[in-house]
Design goal:
about 350 residues; Rossmann fold; 12 strands; 14 helices; 3-stranded mixed sheet; alpha/beta; binds nicotinamide-adenine-dinucleotide; about 15% strand
Length: about 350
């Protein structure tokens, strides 16, 4: 099948795309390139890369037609993708995470293109009991609200002829060619390696559903390849645990590691654990546990595959703030600036494939 992956140059997309290629799919990526896109260019068979702002593509009917030409399934990952980045510019978050998602969903439905959307378990916000997909959503942040609004809108658009899949993913962890060190298990992995300590912000008693990035990619491919899925919305996670429960896993990996508690002025009230019966009934079984995922990151750090895990580049909110402060907020300008900034020295240039 021909698959368009929006936001495909990001943490999840960079793991998902090779898995799509292995299964014989053809891949086109649309990504503004906030975190670089060069790593996609080495993939074989070649991935078609469109470096553009999704909002600009949606505003231009001819460009949108070209972008969606020949596409069988859209996997929509493009987003301002965590709470602190989403708070930097709530209007941008609304535009990218909700409005662009809405317009893309409408464009897919009109053309009969199937779609898989990457939502988040953070839509449940604060939920004292285990929550399933029909449970109450309680978004506590701009990011979570943008995901709930998108989920609701997509469910409204769905009908017998257009049955998208909305995956409410747990907090991801694990190695990706476009690494993120602003996700709890990934942060613990580098801190335990560099400092022999894990830093727990607050009391660490908040529950979180966790999911290895490979397992998330595999779940997405399941929905690409199985249009007959029973429901529209699925919680996707391998296990629920509290942040404090991670400590023993990291101590088992590195016996020199100790925990450090850091007091927060504004404690994190997000606390949710999700039921995954629906996912399991589809036959989706996550394979990678937390220890294995942490060890692969630690090995990548120790062997120098991730040269500088403390670089601001691996932290979405800090990096986006830096880009914004460089003063180029308009989308075309940002894309142009990133072309210059992110291309590695001596690389042949970004050579856009126009849609
Ligand atoms: N990482 C997680 O723990 C997690 C958990 C649940 C859900 N999700 C969701 O999964 C998706 C992917 O997450 P990720 O961790 O890969 O995030 P990421 O930030 O690494 O990737 C997002 C990509 O979207 C691109 N993008 C942002 N704005 C764009 C725009 N206007 N036009 C085109 N491209 C744009 C960025 O350049 C980036 O490459 C997001 O929708 C995120 O909300 C992630």
């Amino acid at each position: 099948m021909n698959i368009l992956v929006t936001g495909g140059a990001g943490y999840l997309g960079s793991v998902l795309i090779p898995k799509l290629l292995i299964r014989g799919h053809k891949v086109r990526v649309l990504d503004i390139g906030y975190f670089g896109i060069e790593h996609l260019r080495a993939m074989r068979p070649a991935v078609e890369v469109v470096r553009q702002d999704l909002r600009a593509m949606l505003a231009d009917p001819a460009a949108l037609d070209e972008l969606l030409k020949g596409i069988h399934v859209v996997i929509h990952l493009a987003a301002i993708s965590n709470d602190p980045s989403a708070e930097l510019n709530p209007r941008l978050t609304e535009e990218v995470n909700f409005e662009a998602t809405r317009d893309l969903a409408i464009a897919c439905k009109r053309r009969g293109i199937r779609a898989v959307f990457s939502s988040s378990c953070s839509v449940y916000g604060e939920s004292p009991d285990e929550v399933d997909e029909d449970g109450q959503t309680k978004p506590l942040t701009t990011y979570a609200k943008s995901k709930v609004d998108s989920d609701n809108l997509i469910v409204e658009l769905a009908d017998a002829n257009w049955r998208p899949a909305i995956l409410r993913n747990g907090t991801l962890f694990g190695y990706s060619p476009r690494m993120r060190f602003d996700l709890v298990i990934n942060i613990f992995s580098y801190c335990s390696t560099l400092y022999n300590e894990v830093r727990v912000f607050g009391d660490g008693l908040q529950w979180r559903p966790m999911l290895h990035v490979d397992d998330c990619a595999r779940a997405m491919i399941y929905f690409v390849e199985n249009p007959g899925h029973k429901h529209l919305v699925y919680n996707i996670a391998s296990e629920n645990l509290r942040v404090v429960d991670l400590i023993s896993i990291f101590k088992a990996i590195n016996p020199s590691c100790r925990e450090v508690y850091i007091k927060l002025e504004n404690p994190d009230t997000r606390n949710y654990h999700v039921n995954t019966a629906r996912m399991r009934a589809e036959g989706i079984t996550p394979r990678v546990d937390i220890r294995t995922g942490a060890e692969e990151i630690i090995e990548a750090i120790v062997t120098g595959r991730i040269a500088d895990p403390e670089a601001v580049y691996y932290r979405n909110a800090k990096w986006l703030k830096e880009l914004t402060e460089l003063g180029n907020k308009d989308s075309a300008g940002t894309v142009g600036m990133l072309d210059i900034m992110v291309a590695p020295i001596g690389s042949p240039g970004t050579g856009l494939t126009k849609p």
